[in-house]
């Protein structure tokens, strides 16, 4: 049997204990509830942007997890361009959280970032043990992704100020559920210290033990 390729054909140079996931933030929000969701999304977008900047400074890989909007010919760069260049509802959100060339991206056909995607393979090659989940919506795609991550034994940090849903009640319930059932750490984003990745992981481990 051939030896395992150590770097996924040269396309995954990073090695990190922790990865930051941005879920469904590249979104035109062109649907019935989109304008209402935009108001809530913009409230957390600044927090996510600040968290991303700190992650980049600490060489923590950033992965965009995004819907393909039911189009199997979807292209991530095309989705970004559509949201930035066209007059769409979600444009302010994407302007705040637009990806950089060195960021990773995964397109998903369903709610979970793991379902029928390359996310598991990417994280495996990065040697990631802890996932920080941010984005929209907390009670749907963030929840489904967190559930699949938990089943794969990742430590989960889901900052309460970096996730939003269609209502505050739904978001609060989703965070409470992920904390209780998935052992997620839901501390605010400003308490995450990327300069001490092992400490980030241990904090997640402690949270899991406390919730057990």
Specify the CATH class.
Alpha Beta
Percent of residues in helices comes to 40-55%
Instruction: Report the C-alpha radius of gyration, rounded.
Output: 16 Å
**Mean pLDDT across all amino acids:** 87
Q: How many individual domains?
A: 1
Q: Determine the N-to-C terminus distance.
A: 41 Å
Task: Give the ordered list of helices and strands.
Answer: EHEHHEHEHEEHH
Number of helices: 7
Q: Which geometry do the CA atoms define? A: globular
Query: The CATH topology, please?
Result: Rossmann fold
The fraction of residues in strands falls at 5-15%
CATH architectural category: 3-Layer(aba) Sandwich
Sheet with the most strands, sense and barrel status: 6 strands, parallel
Poorly predicted runs are none
Structural class: alpha/beta
Number of strands: 6
Report the CATH superfamily.
Isochorismatase-like
What does this structure look like?
The chain is an alpha/beta fold. It has one domain (18-211): Rossmann fold (3-Layer(aba) Sandwich). It is built from 7 helices and 6 strands. The chain has helices spanning 34-57, 76-85, 91-97, 119-126, 141-151, 168-181, 197-211; strands spanning 18-23, 62-67, 104-108, 130-136, 155-157, 163-164. Strands 1, 2, 3, 4, 5 and 6 form a 6-stranded parallel β-sheet that branches. Strand 4 (130-136), helix 5 (141-151) and strand 5 (155-157) form a beta-alpha-beta unit. Helix 1 runs parallel beside helix 3 (91-97) and helix 2 crosses helix 3 (91-97). The radius of gyration is 16 Å and the shape is globular. The mean pLDDT is 87.
């Amino acid at each position: 049997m051939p030896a395992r390729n150590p770097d996924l054909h040269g396309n995954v140079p990073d090695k990190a204990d922790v990865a930051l996931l941005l879920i469904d933030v590249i979104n035109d929000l062109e649907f019935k509830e989109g304008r209402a969701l935009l108001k809530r999304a913009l409230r957390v977008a600044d927090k996510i942007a600040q968290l991303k900047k700190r992650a980049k400074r600490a060489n923590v890989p950033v992965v965009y997890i995004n819907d393909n909007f039911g189009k199997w010919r979807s292209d991530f760069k095309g989705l970004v361009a559509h949201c930035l260049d066209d007059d769409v509802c979600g444009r302010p959100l994407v302007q705040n959280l637009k990806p950089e060339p060195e960021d990773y991206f995964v397109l998903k056909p369903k709610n979970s970032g793991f379902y029928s995607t390359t996310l598991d393979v990417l994280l495996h090659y990065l040697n990631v043990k802890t996932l920080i989940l941010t984005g929209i919506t907390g009670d749907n795609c963030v929840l489904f992704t967190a559930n699949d991550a938990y089943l794969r034994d990742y430590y989960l940090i889901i900052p309460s100020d970096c996730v939003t849903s269609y209502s505050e009640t739904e978001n609060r319930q989703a965070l409470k559920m992920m904390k209780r059932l998935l052992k997620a750490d839901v501390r605010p984003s400003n308490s995450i210290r990327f300069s001490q990745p092992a400490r980030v992981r241990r904090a997640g481990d402690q949270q899991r033990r406390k919730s057990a």
